[in-house]
Specification:
Blueprint: E1 2-8, E2 11-16, E3 26-35, H1 38-44, H2 52-60, E4 70-78, E5 90-93, H3 103-106, E6 130-134, E7 138-140, H4 147-150, H5 153-165, E8 174-177, H6 181-192, E9 198-202, H7 205-213, E10 218-221, H8 227-234, E11 240-245, H9 259-266, E12 268-276, H10 288-292, E13 297-299, H11 306-317, E14 330-332, H12 337-345, H13 347-350, E15 357-359
Parallel strand pairs: 8-9, 8-11, 9-10, 11-12, 12-13, 14-15
Antiparallel strand pairs: 1-2, 3-4, 3-6, 3-15, 4-5, 5-7
Helix pairs in contact: 1-12, 5-6, 5-11
This protein binds zinc ion.
The site of zinc ion (ZN) has 10 residues, from helix 3.
Amino acid sequence: MRAWQLYGFGDMRLEELEDPRPGPGEALVRTRVVQPSVTEAMLAFGTETFGYETVRSALADGPARLFGHEYCAEIVALGEGVEGLAAGDRVADVAALPCMECALCLEGRSEDCRRGPHVGFEMPGCLSDVAVVPALGLVPVPDGVSDAQAACLQPACDCVAGVDAARLEGGETVAVIGQGPMGGYTLQLARAAGAGRVIAIDVRAESLATARELGADDCVDASDGDPVAAVLELTGGRGVDVAFESAGGAPSSGLGGHTTLDQAREMTRDTGRVVVLALLPGTPPFDMLAWRGRSIELLFPPLGSRSHLARAAALAADGALALDRYTSHSVDGLERVAEAFEITANKGRYGALGPCQVVVAGD
Ligand SMILES: [Zn+2]
């Protein structure tokens, strides 16, 4: 098989390796569509974001097969002891696997475990013709969901977990800060979970136009003035019940730093909820009294589990979740993976709304 290996930051190479065989509890899958996550694309070029130390230490031992957890693949063969899956099934994968050893896993709460390995980091993902992956992260893809859509299920399942964490009650008003793919999925999932008015916020006109197509009631262009003032005006001074933060991140990557976390609090009503979806780097300045004084809940949802992913897939099959609205760029052939990383790491320069997909194999 052909597989991509990372030799150093900014140095990926496609090589011929021996075909892997699935061991107990594993599946051999053939990659159909794979996309770099934005985090993976930044890491491949050495940006110090979430997972940087894992990648740096993997590279210290020589070339490493990293990344590729956002994919749609077809099961070729199963190792011993795998149930509920069959050869020929199309599948998607969760990013964070349970460890199956900790107290939570042993209590039967493996979906809450945060100690297991991450596909694409502690084990290879699908930047190869075929790959062996643990079966316990795999979820069958329904017929109505295309390969390209299914490759977006992993980031969408994190948003399902985020919307669950918000405990939305019918008709509540929601703001979503950041209208990249995560923000766009969250906006649709909040609507499906019973949100009333949904306010989308971004600094990019094209992202806000997409948000409006996906059902946002109001769009606030934060490049055009204070988004907090705009949201307070839209809500008659009350503020939203729930704000989702999906814009923050390293300013060196063109993201919003920590400012959007404070904005989320300021636009939320007293005793409302703020759900953090972004990976905020470093140590943000934290004004404890500003949160405590207004009894605002600051929530960090779990990562998406298999049940979250299955729900995202079902919503997509029902037409309630447009998964591929952010797939503006796509390339054909495994040999073009490095190009997809370049585009995904520099979305602004290429005019990409989300990750660049790689179509590896079709029917
Ligand atoms: Zn565990």
